[in-house]
């Protein structure tokens, strides 16, 4: 205890000179520990660099998982806490991607997720979701990076690509030796993706692509990009594999984001970009084929807020235990406890809703309306969790080193992508009423006034 007193004195923690009682001794021990795990300016609570223990699973949802799913969850959690948590806030601030962690990430054998064969692990939907949750718990950007690669690009190739495309691309993509991107969204068509304007013109030996894509994750460095384009002959939507460095392909990073800053989103410009006939995905004959991919990817996006909310709750629980004001830990105050209780209840409900959606998919009972309902609802509740977390951390709630500020910004992007909240609830509303409300009702004709 004397050693702790000396250390605390050096840290300016206390001027107490008398015998240490149990309470003050515990306080000194806590503050001395905090001083070794924080930056110099705030030695009173730990940052995310030393990630908090997972205390969010109070309903014991872990017991719903198979041994394989638990293995994925805990391997991923250990990697994220050890290798990503200490460095990621710095990358988030610089809007840079940590390429050096990819080789160790590849060792987790997460590449390919649900796909089987071609070097892919063939995970269950829940197993793939546990990886998403545990990655998002520490950093939503890294979960988006892997989700774009796995659940959009690789899944499209696996479901709709040719045998030749699968054999050539999927093994190296599963090993993260090749990274994928997926180009559907355009500047003129966000929610109304079916109205895409990028064109594919048939020429001798291949196709010429022209158009622009926007918000394409991983696009600045992706080796393989699946581009969705409309055939100038049939007017139907097709999909094509465009390789890094292809003539006529140019990408430009989207700067100054406040969310998912580690994700390298880009504008893609296709200017007479030629691809061979072998680059066309034979399983795509119309825009409806995107639904085969989005059915799974939307499940994974619905799980992302679960992971973010778990991380924020875990961080806040430790913070209010460590942070002392008015002579007591913040966690001893009633208003703080109310916020924690609300956050924790949301986490439980979000997890259970996503778990059930995933099971319905595996049983062949999931509908697009159910997927949209879940994605809309978890992002809405996730928004509440991160907002409450921001309040609990006070000023540190706007500092990315303490996780919550970073998660607060990241949640805004997830609330919008893979269908905005509004579009997803309209899909849900269509399922309830049988009536689509995506377009404004036609204006009614004004009655002609009759003069007496």
From TrEMBL:
Specify the Acyl-CoA dehydrogenase/oxidase N-terminal domain's residue ranges: 66-175
> What is the protein's name according to its record?
Acyl-CoA dehydrogenase NM domain-like protein
Q: Which InterPro entries match?
A: ACX4-like (IPR045008), Acyl-CoA_DH_CS (IPR006089), Acyl-CoA_Oxase/DH_mid-dom (IPR006091), Acyl-CoA_Oxase/DH_mid-dom_sf (IPR046373), AcylCo_DH-like_C (IPR036250), AcylCo_DH/oxidase_C (IPR009075), AcylCoA_DH/ox_N (IPR013786), AcylCoA_DH/ox_N_sf (IPR037069)
Organism this protein belongs to: Coccomyxa subellipsoidea
Signal sequence segment: none
What cofactor does this one take?
FAD
- Name the source's superkingdom: Eukaryota
Domain named Acyl-CoA dehydrogenase/oxidase C-terminal: which ranges? 290-432
The UniProt entry, under Pfam families, shows: Acyl-CoA_dh_1 (PF00441), Acyl-CoA_dh_M (PF02770), Acyl-CoA_dh_N (PF02771)
- Acyl-CoA oxidase/dehydrogenase middle domain residues are 182-273
Q: Which key words are in the record?
A: FAD, Flavoprotein, Oxidoreductase
User: What is the similarity comment for this entry?
Assistant: Belongs to the acyl-CoA dehydrogenase family.
Q: Lineage of the native species?
A: Eukaryota, Viridiplantae, Chlorophyta, core chlorophytes, Trebouxiophyceae
């Amino acid at each position: 205890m004397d050693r702790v007193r000396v250390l605390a004195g050096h840290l300016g923690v206390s001027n107490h000179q008398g015998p240490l009682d149990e309470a003050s001794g515990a306080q000194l021990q806590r503050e001395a520990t905090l001083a070794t795990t924080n930056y110099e300016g705030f030695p009173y609570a730990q940052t995310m660099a030393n990630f908090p223990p997972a205390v969010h699973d109070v309903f014991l949802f872990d017991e719903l998982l198979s041994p394989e799913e638990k293995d994925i969850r805990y391997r991923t959690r250990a990697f994220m806490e050890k290798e990503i948590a200490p460095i990621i806030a710095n990358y988030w601030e610089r809007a840079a991607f940590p390429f050096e962690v990819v080789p160790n990430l590849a060792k987790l054998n997460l590449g390919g997720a649900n796909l089987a064969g071609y070097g892919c692990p063939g995970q269950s939907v829940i197993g793939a979701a546990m990886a998403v949750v545990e990655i998002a718990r520490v950093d939503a950007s890294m979960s988006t990076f892997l989700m774009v690669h796995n659940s959009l690009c690789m899944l499209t190739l696996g479901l709709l690509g040719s045998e030749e495309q699968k054999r050539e691309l999927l093994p190296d993509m599963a090993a993260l030796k090749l990274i994928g991107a997926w180009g559907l969204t355009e500047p003129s068509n966000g929610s109304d993706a079916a109205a895409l304007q990028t064109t594919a013109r048939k020429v001798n030996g291949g196709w010429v692509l022209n158009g622009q894509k926007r918000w394409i994750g991983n696009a600045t460095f992706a080796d393989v990009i699946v581009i969705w384009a409309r055939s100038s002959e049939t007017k139907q939507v097709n999909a094509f594999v465009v390789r890094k460095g292809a003539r006529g392909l140019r990408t430009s990073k989207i700067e100054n984001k406040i969310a998912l800053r580690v994700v390298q989103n880009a504008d893609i410009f296709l200017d007479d970009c030629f691809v061979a006939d072998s680059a066309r995905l034979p399983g795509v004959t119309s825009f409806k084929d995107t639904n085969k991919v989005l059915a799974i990817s939307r499940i994974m996006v619905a799980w992302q807020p679960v992971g973010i909310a778990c991380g924020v709750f875990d961080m806040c629980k430790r913070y209010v235990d460590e942070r002392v004001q008015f002579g007591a830990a913040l966690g001893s105050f009633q208003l703080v406890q109310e916020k924690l209780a609300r956050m924790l209840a949301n986490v439980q409900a979000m997890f259970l809703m996503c778990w059930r959606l995933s099971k319905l998919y595996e049983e062949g009972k999931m509908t697009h309306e159910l997927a949209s309902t879940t994605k809309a609802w978890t992002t809405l509740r996730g928004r509440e969790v991160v907002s409450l977390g921001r309040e609990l951390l006070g000023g540190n709630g706007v500092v990315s080193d303490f996780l919550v500020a970073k998660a607060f910004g990241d949640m805004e992007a997830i609330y919008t992508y893979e269908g905005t909240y509004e579009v997803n609830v309209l899909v849900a509303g269509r399922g309830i009423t049988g009536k689509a409300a995506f377009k404004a009702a036609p204006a009614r004709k004004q009655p002609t006034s009759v003069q007496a």
